[in-house]
Amino acid sequence: MAAPSPAAPTGRVVFVGAGPGSADLITLRGLRALQQAEVVLFDALADPALRDYAPGAEWIDVGKRGFSHRPGSDASGQPRINALIVEHALRGKRVVRLKGGDPSIFGRLEEELQAAYAAGLECEVVPGVTAALAAAAGTRLPLTRRGTGRSVTLTTAMTRAGSLQPGEALAARRDTEVLYMAGKQLAALAEQLLDAGWPSDTPCSVVSRAGWADQLHTAHCIDSLHEAGEAHAGRPTVVVVGAGARPVPAADEISPPSQLTPVNVQ
């Protein structure tokens, strides 16, 4: 009787959120996964310092830049990434797909999970700090405010064709809107926000390279949002619109609580 053929090697894929900037924003769980990796497929926005935690792994650059997904550009980018994930994992390698920010926020996680599932691979997703949270922390402008900032929407300013989302997607139905990948078309974004019903004096916070030591923040209203373009040119940028962009008042600007009338207890 012939001996059974050995089982095909099965690898494992861990999708790790590297955070939006400096290497120390990665979670402990993500760091442990990275230290165990044999192959790391990394994004353009992942801090190169993270290589120090997996020096023995094979590091493969699969980063894409804004507008690179337009028709006629690198249309094979995402299929190539999917193929690399499957190829290395099926060789029995421990694969980390290292994504800037959080894997599930505009990171094409669904497409990569589908490719891994189709190949029968075991997967894990490790969350990370997304750029909206890093921008809020770095500027000390909370995304939610008691009573006036009870909803936050995360929206990509880009479509597959490289254009802004339709105005309906930006309708003024929430308190705070955070727009990703908007830095190259701030003037057009301002027009869309106005068309969608946002008042022209709505505060806007523009933050580029959130989470990095050279983070840049400028404050505007919608009608002056176009002025931010030059300062943030060529830098990954998020725009916070509405309640989450309002300055935090100083202590002496806050109205004191109303006085309570004493109650006589008999």
What does this protein structure show overall?
With 266 residues, the chain is an alpha/beta fold. The chain has 2 domains: 12-126, Tetrapyrrole methylase, N-terminal domain (Cobalt-precorrin-4 Transmethylase, domain 1); 131-245, Tetrapyrrole methylase, C-terminal domain (Methyltransferase, Cobalt-precorrin-4 Transmethylase, Domain 2), CATH 3.30.950. Helix content is 19%, strand content 20%. It contains 5 helices and 10 strands, in the order E-H-E-E-H-E-H-E-H-E-E-H-E-E-E. It has helices at residues 28-35, 77-90, 109-118, 131-139, 186-195; strands at 12-17, 39-42, 58-61, 94-99, 122-126, 152-156, 176-180, 203-208, 216-221, 237-242. The strands form 2 sheets. It has a 5-stranded parallel beta sheet with strand order 3-2-4-1-5, with helices on both faces. The protein has a 5-stranded mixed beta sheet with strand order 6-7-10-8-9, with helices on one face. A hairpin with a 7-residue loop joins strand 8 and strand 9 (216-221). Helix 2 (77-90) packs across helix 3 (109-118). Mean pLDDT is 86; it is low at 1-6, 67-76 and 257-266.
CATH domain fold name of the largest domain: Cobalt-precorrin-4 Transmethylase, domain 1
Q: At CATH's second level, what is the architecture of the largest domain? A: 3-Layer(aba) Sandwich
Q: Radius of gyration, rounded?
A: 23 Å
Q: Which overall shape is indicated by the principal axes computed on the Cα atoms?
A: elongated
Compute the number of helices: 5
Structural class, by secondary structure, is alpha/beta
Mean pLDDT rating: 86
* CATH-defined superfamily of the largest domain: Tetrapyrrole methylase, N-terminal domain
Q: Total domains, how many?
A: 2
Unreliable stretches, pLDDT < 50, 5 or more residues?
1-6, 67-76, 257-266
Distance between the termini: 98 Å
Biggest sheet descriptor: 5 strands, parallel
Would you state the CATH class of the largest domain? Alpha Beta
Report strand order across the widest sheet. 3-2-4-1-5
Q: Can you write the helix and strand succession as a string?
A: EHEEHEHEHEEHEEE
- Share of helical residues: 10-25%
